[in-house]
Amino acid sequence: MKLTKIHHIAIICSDYQKSKDFYVRILGLTPVREVFREDRNSYKLDLNVGGQYQIELFSFPDPPARPSYPEAAGLRHLAFEVEDIDEAVAYLTDQQIMVEAIRVDPLTNKKFTFFADPDGLPIELYEQ
After folding, report:
1. For 32-60, what is each residue's pLDDT tens digit?
2. Is residue 58 within 8 Å of residue 42, measured between CB atoms?
3. For residue 66, what are the CA distances in angstroms to 33, 55, 74, 93, 107?
4. Which member of 22, 26, 78, 91 has the greatest number of CB atoms within 10 A?
5. Which domains does the chain have, with CATH numbers?
6. CA-to-CA distance for 104 and 82, rounded, in angstroms?
7. pLDDT digits (tens, 9 = 90+) for 59-106
């Protein structure tokens, strides 16, 4: 088997319109396709990330909450690369998004920080 790239990342949200606004308006991801799947009473929104990857945003009626433990096994966070982290943090702050203090990765000397989506999914910004 030879994996060539990440095809998509799927996120289930609790409030579809709120999450759609967050990922499209605030994060600036481009909608590719939006469908309502009547049989599941669920929306699926495909979002373009930099022309390479796709986030699939799903809505389901009454999804169960996911327990979150900082160092639990499993997917830890979603990370986006940015050119200027200070500019990105200023923008998010202007959008009323709480952002952690910028830190420096001791292995790469690159700046990074975290914030959360409307459901508390940790999102990292990592300066290239």
Report:
1. 999 999 999 999 999 999 888 899 999 98
2. yes
3. 26, 19, 12, 26, 31
4. 22
5. 1-62 (3.10.180.10), 77-128 (3.10.180.10)
6. 14
7. 988 888 777 666 667 777 899 999 999 999 999 999 999 999 999 999
